[in-house]
Please model this.
Amino acid sequence: MQDTFSEEYIEKLRKRHYNATVSRLRLIHDELMVINIQPDDPLPEFQGGQYTIVGLGNWEPRSPDTQVEHLSESEREKLVKRAYSISCSLLNGENLQTAGERGYLEFYIALVRVADKKPPALTPRLFQLQEGARLYLGPKITGHYTLEAVQDDDDVLFLATGTGEAPHNAMLAELLSRGHRGRILSAVCVRYRSDLAYLETHQKLTEQFANYSYCPMTTREPENVDTSHPNFVGKEYLQEFISSGKLEGTLGYDLDPARTHVYLCGNPAMIGIPTVEEGRKVYPETTGVIELLEGRGFAADQTGQPGNIHFEKYW
Ligand SMILES: Cc1cc2nc3c(=O)[nH]c(=O)nc-3n(C[C@H](O)[C@H](O)[C@H](O)COP(=O)(O)OP(=O)(O)OC[C@H]3O[C@@H](n4cnc5c(N)ncnc54)[C@H](O)[C@@H]3O)c2cc1C
Ligand SMILES: NC(=O)c1ccc[n+]([C@@H]2O[C@H](COP(=O)([O-])OP(=O)(O)OC[C@H]3O[C@@H](n4cnc5c(N)ncnc54)[C@H](OP(=O)(O)O)[C@@H]3O)[C@@H](O)[C@H]2O)c1
Model:
């Protein structure tokens, strides 16, 4: 099936569907990238924390060592589109930079090699791209995961797993550039240190801004899993970081729901969104951050009822 489309026909499909160019691609490692995409048209206005759509044709090649996909000829002519939070490189040299201010969008994307239900469709193709390649970028930027409720003196906690730090980077750039007076902490939990693409940037920002602190955490490094390691610390999720009191130890103050907004993004199990069953709130079996914080006086956003815990789940 793969050979039935000629190069000429593929070029025609690309011309018909694509409206943007990869202006920069930084491969952090085989399974993680920071990609800058320049749309043909000017960017619409947007806020830090929002997302848009990225797409590629099913006719594009897939990365090797990813789940095999079987598509009909008509499916192969279609675009596959996924939502991506807009990230931000935060610094341009020594200067703060907000998302989109230079006319392109930055995204922070992990390669999904295998998925439970259907084979992952977009990331195996995105990881074959090179600078200069064409692709589809949604014309609209949207989402409620923004700083709208945050006042200048509020404390803000950004808690992320993996690439969930993307929208936090865009919001952080917005807060720092508007002279936010409250305290800001960004904590990111990843498998390996090499998954911290923005580590140095955050470290520089903590030196430049007295009200900003950054806390990276890993779960699969030798010191997390090997009990004989001289610096063994075990594996700690964001939930334990909070319940053990380490979060407040790092912050140097107690969490006060009256003046704090918490942002949670990434793995849904970390977030732990409750459901309502027969008028009763039911938390997921595995304790997530929402359950912990609601036990301490915070309230998660609900439709028509904004709270001080805001969340964006990626799947
Ligand atoms: C609002 C929103 C914003 C998003 N922003 C980002 C982002 O900034 N960066 C990003 O990498 N992804 C992001 N995602 C996920 C993204 O839309 C895709 O689902 C993901 O890139 C995988 O695409 P796929 O087609 O290869 O596989 P899919 O078929 O979409 O997903 C297959 C499976 O992969 C797993 N998965 C999906 N995304 C991730 C992830 N990021 N990390 C770990 N496992 C994952 C899930 O188990 C999922 O069921 C976002 C999703 C939403 C809803
Ligand atoms: N990032 C990589 O280097 C890498 C490598 C191989 C494959 N991939 C693929 O890329 C995709 C993204 O992976 P990712 O590592 O970015 O995202 P991820 O799987 O969501 O993991 C991010 C972090 O969240 C932790 N986590 C897992 N379950 C949690 C829970 N219930 N509560 C709190 N924290 C939890 C993980 O710890 P654990 O260590 O316990 O999982 C890890 O530290 C996946 O499809 C993955 O298969 C990525």
